[in-house]
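This protein record is not my work; I was only asked to verify it. The record follows directly below this note.
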Amino acid sequence: MRIGILSDTHLPNLIRTLDELGPEISDFLATVDLILHSGDLTSPMVLDWLEPFAPVLCVTGNNDPIVDARCKEVEILDVHGWRLGMVHSLKRGFRPVTELQQLFPTPVQIMIAGDTHYEVLEHREGVVVLNSGSPTFPHHKDLRLGTVGLLELAPGTLHAEVMVLGQTPGKPNPGRAMCLDLQHGQLVGLPQETRL
């Protein structure tokens, strides 16, 4: 299963929909089976825009004054034997994984969060931690193409990436592309970071 991950879209702002930044986000979403949004949509219209691509699960962010049944405070799901937990903020995500696990009602193998607008992909204490950054305001810079996340899950195997969407003319994308692979809970090779 291919899962696309977004966070911190903060729309509407100077634009109303994600495709106003260019085709990159739509092209990416057209390849996934499920979309996870880890909060700070600021408007349910973002979910409306995402839903034609794939089913969407969303958590509520600190800038989401919206009441929408599609958003929860915490999302837990099981996919091919992997348990994922999604919250908007890991609240100082550098803390030990045992403390981060307390944010979820049950232990998870994959933690997905947003909030910081900075991309993170790491394997710590047996858990994958993924923050996709922001596709619209990467590193809290002004409106431009940023980053998204990808999870490919199958029984016993996991591939995770942070993908740099491209460049907005005159506004460099500060995002970092990263990937890691697990087989039966073990890291395969070393996590990779590349600059596009």
Observations:
- The two ends are 25 Å apart (CA to CA).
